[in-house]
What we know:
The structure is a single chain. By secondary structure, the chain is an alpha+beta fold. It has a single domain, classed as 4-Layer Sandwich (Deoxyribonuclease I, Chain A). 20% of the residues lie in helices and 38% in strands. Helix 3 packs parallel to helix 4. It is globular.
Amino acid sequence: MRLRVVSYNIHRCIGRDGRRDPDRIRRIIREVDAHVVALQEVELLDEAPDFLEFLCHDTGLSPIPGMTMRLGQAHYGNALLTALPVVDVEFVDLSFARREPRAAIHATLAWAGNPVQIIATHLGLRARERRSQMRRLLALLSDNSASTPPEVSILMGDLNEWFLWGRPLRWLRAQFDQSPAPATFPSGRPLFALDRIWVRPREKLLSIQAVKSELTNVASDHLPLIAQVRKGS
């Protein structure tokens, strides 16, 4: 059995052509056909409060909103779409003083009867901010209080970390071992691996790749990142 997970910064559905087109994002979500999708820069407009249901229509996915702030006539933040049963969800505040509010969705999902730990997030723009946020996320990964340990732990999202040897990436490598880092930003000509997926145990990770197509090149300023995870030893 294989688990497909995706991280995608959808940039409020505003593409590189300047158009806001939610249908392009929905088409991409259908095409990647993942079991779990972590979205960043999600905008829930007051005039369209069912946006996440719109994205999930006819996909078998169910939404978990993780809004972090109010912007004008909309709520803004993260979301998790999942085809797996939800066991537990925790919303983790990662906000840093005098910076844009940030958060993570910490979910336990059931995969073929076993728990899977998912942490979906969007970290801040400043190095000090990201270090503080990563310490909090690593504490979640180090928590052994669960009665049934997860078969797999996955951390994914837009980490905004472009320093290859920055402390957050070094800390993640210590927890997860090396992980492929395809460039995802900017989508038209990707140069930076801002979007990341980390899987533990490392041997369960089969592949990670950026999803490049005519549609993904224009629908957002980031490319989707997809990982394949295997079950069993």
